[in-house]
Amino acid sequence: AQKVTQAQTEISVVEKEDVTLDCVYETRDTTYYLFWYKQPPSGELVFLIRRNSFDEQNEISGRYSWNFQKSTSSFNFTITASQVVDSAVYFCALGPDSWGKFQFGAGTQVVVTP
Amino acid sequence: DAMVIQNPRYQVTQFGKPVTLSCSQTLNHNVMYWYQQKSSQAPKLLFHYYDKDFNNEADTPDNFQSRRPNTSFCFLDIRSPGLGDAAMYLCATSKGQGEHEQFFGPGTRLTVL
Fold first, then answer.
1. Which of B96, B88, B4, B85 shows the shortest CA–CA distance to B51?
2. Distance (Å) from the alpha carbon of A101 to chain B's nearest alpha carbon
3. Tens digit of pLDDT for each residue in A32-41?
4. B54 neighbourhood in chain A, CB within 8 Å
5. Contact flag A91-B50 (C-beta cutoff 8 Å)
6. Which residues on B lie below 8 Å from A105 (Cβ)?
7. What is the pLDDT, as a whole number, of residue B55?
8. What does the pLDDT look like over B15-72, one tens digit per residue?
9. Strand B4-7 relative to strand A103-104: parallel, antiparallel, unpaired?
């Protein structure tokens, strides 16, 4: 069975601080996909990134960066120089399994205060 | 802009009164999903369609049904809503076939009185 663990329930930072969100996954599949989604207070989940299991390159997109390490089954997400607009719940997800299902982590609430 | 649209955004119903939530997409994606999300929880998959192939999650109550009459539309029917069904219902789509990222609609907030 697939499993995603986001151990951090909530992270509070002051604007301009960096914040790293941890994601640890479990799967027996050799081919799989990992994702990060952002859910702001408005409620709509927004896709941020997809990473394939065979591509361990880290990625940077503006203030966002992702560190994928198969050796530790982790796919961590860093927001550099955080802003108030980054306040949201961030979900890490894994899938799809053979049934087409995705496993979401419990989510990490990020609170950025001015 | 291509998008996922959900109607209504807010739905209030009475205990036991059937309700239908709708989702439409202009992305021409093969896969459509329905999730239920309760406060401070992760989205929980109810069903998904790969084209017309319907996949029901084992723990989705029989009270929940779904229809996908064509590529663009998908409906969630709750036959007899209970108080425990009050939640945000999220529709999502994906291309499938190696491009599995999901694009979500804004959700329908269901209140059961």
1. B96
2. 8
3. 999 999 999 9
4. none
5. no
6. 42
7. 86
8. 999 999 999 999 999 999 999 999 989 999 999 999 888 888 888 999 999 999 999 9
9. unpaired
Best of B101, B108, B110 to substitute, by most chain A Cβ atoms within 10 angstroms, is B101
Q: What is the DSSP string of B12-68?
A: EE-TT--EEEEEEESS--SEEEEEEE-TTS--EEEEEEETTEEEE-TTS-TTEEEE-
Q: What residues of chain B lie within 8 A of the CB of A42, using their CB?
A: 106
Report the amino acid identity of residue A49: I
For residues B7 and B22, the answer to whether their CB atoms sit within 8 Å is yes
Q: What gap in Å lies between CA B37 and CA A38, rounded to an integer?
A: 14
Contact B42 A106 (CB under 8 A): yes
Residue count of chain B: 113
Which among A101, A104, A77, A91 is positioned nearest to A29, based on CA atoms? A101
Is pLDDT above 80 for B2? no
Q: Which two tokens stand for residue A10?
A: 């909530």
Which residue of A33, A102, A108 to mutate against B (max B Cβ within 10 Å)? A102
Which pLDDT score is estimated for A98? Answer: 80
